[in-house]
Design goal:
about 350 residues, two-stranded parallel ribbon
Length: about 350
C-alpha cells in the first residue's frame, strides 16, 4: 500500500532514510517536496560533490541509473541518487529495463538512497514492477486534493507552518486558486515572507500580498449569482474583463458548472438547512448557508437550463455561432441568461 506523503516526510525529518523511494501520482507537490528534502538533507553539504547524483529521466536509461545506485559512497556513510522526471525514462516500458529495476529492488545497496520521482503519472500497480515497488520501496502516491477537501488541506498547511486562516480567506484561496498545490503554496510562500510571527490570515492579507481582490473574485462572483445580485455580478464581470489573463473564461465556466452541480445535489437530497447542505457539498457551514439561499433561488428546472446555457457558451467560445462576440460578451450573455 502507498504511504502517506506526510508520514514519509515525518520519517525523513527524523533522519529515518530508506534505500529506495518511488514517488508517483498526478499531484507533483508532494513528489517534489520529498525529493527536494532528500536532496538537501540526506547527506551533509560537503559530501554532495562526490556522493550525490541528480539524473533526469529523458537523459538516462535504466542501466545508467542502477550502475550509479550500485556505487559505494566515497568517504561517507551513504550516497544519494535522484532521478527526476523518471516517467520520461526512454526504456521504462521495456521488459528488460523493468527486470533490471526489479533485480535491484530485491537486493538494493544499503548505502545508497535511490529516489525515483515519477511525476504526473501513476505506475501500473498490476504489473510485476508495480507490485515490487509497492512491496520493497517507500512508495508514495501523490493524489490531487479533491475540491471538497481543499479547505481542510489549506487549514492544515497553515497550521503546520505555525499560522492560521480565517474561513472566508480560506474559501477565497480555494475558489480563486483551486487545487493546484504547487501554485497555491508558491503564492502562500510569498505572503509568509511578510510575517515575522504566527498570523491569523484574513481576506485583507490575501488581497494585499497575493493580489486576489477581496470584492471581485471567484468566490464573490458565485455568491452574486447565487443571490441573484445582478448589479454585483455585472460589476465583477466588468472587473474580470479588464483582467482577462487573471480570469480566463474556461475556468469560470467550470466554476459555474461545479456551483450548479452542487445546487442540483442539494435538490436531489432534499436538503434545506445549512448543516444538511454542508454535509452534502463538503464545504464549511458559512458557505453552505449561501448555497441554501442559492437553492431557493434556482429550482431544479432552472439548474437544468443553466447546464444548457453553459454548453451553448462553451460552443460560442469555440467559435460555433459566436459571430463577433468577445469572451467578455460571451460571459456576460451567459450570466444574463442565468440571472433572468
Amino acid at each position: 500500500m502507498p504511504q502517506k506523503p506526510q508520514d514519509v516526510l515525518k520519517d525523513l525529518k527524523e533522519k529515518k532514510f530508506a534505500p529506495i523511494y518511488f514517488l508517483d501520482g498526478e499531484e507533483p507537490f508532494y513528489i517534489d517536496l520529498i525529493t527536494n528534502y532528500i536532496e538537501k538533507n540526506a547527506i551533509a553539504e560537503q559530501e554532495r560533490g562526490f556522493n550525490q547524483i541528480v539524473l533526469y529521466g529523458k537523459d538516462s536509461n535504466m542501466g545508467m541509473i542502477l550502475n550509479n545506485a550500485r556505487k559505494f559512497p566515497m568517504m561517507a556513510e551513504r550516497q544519494v541518487v535522484i532521478v527526476k522526471e523518471f516517467q520520461s525514462l526512454p526504456d521504462l516500458s521495456k521488459e528488460d529495463a523493468q527486470k533490471l529495476l526489479i533485480g535491484y529492488l530485491q537486493n538494493p545497496l544499503p548505502s545508497t538512497i535511490l529516489v525515483l520521482a515519477h511525476r504526473h503519472k501513476k505506475i501500473d500497480g498490476r504489473s510485476a514492477l508495480g507490485k515490487e515497488l509497492d512491496k520493497r520501496a517507500v512508495f508514495v502516491r501523490s493524489e490531487k486534493v479533491p475540491e471538497y477537501q481543499l479547505n481542510k488541506w489549506i487549514e492544515d498547511y497553515f497550521k503546520d507552518l505555525g499560522h492560521s486562516i480565517d474561513p472566508r480567506a480560506c474559501q477565497l484561496l480555494a475558489d480563486s486558486i483551486g487545487n493546484n498545490l504547487e501554485v497555491l503554496t508558491n503564492e502562500l510562500s510569498k505572503m509568509f515572507l511578510n510575517f515575522s510571527s504566527p498570523t491569523q490570515v484574513t481576506t485583507e492579507h490575501i488581497s494585499k500580498y497575493i493580489g486576489i481582490n477581496k470584492d471581485y473574485n471567484n468566490f464573490e462572483f458565485l455568491k452574486a449569482i447565487g443571490f441573484k445580485d445582478v448589479a454585483k455580478a455585472n460589476k465583477i464581470i466588468h472587473y474580470f474583463s479588464q483582467n482577462p489573463k487573471a480570469h480566463p473564461i474556461i475556468p469560470l465556466f467550470s466554476l459555474i458548472y461545479n456551483y450548479f452541480t452542487k445546487i442540483a445535489l442539494i435538490h436531489q437530497a432534499g436538503a434545506t438547512t445549512e448543516y444538511q447542505v454542508a454535509g452534502i457539498i463538503g464545504l464549511p457551514p458559512f458557505v453552505a448557508k449561501e448555497y441554501v439561499v442559492a437553492a431557493r433561488n434556482y429550482k431544479m428546472g432552472k439548474v437544468i437550463d443553466v447546464f444548457r446555457y453553459l454548453k451553448e457558451a462553451d460552443l460560442r467560445f469555440k467559435g460555433v455561432d459566436s459571430g463577433a462576440m468577445s469572451e467578455a460578451e460571451n460571459l456576460r450573455e451567459l450570466v444574463y441568461l442565468i440571472l433572468h
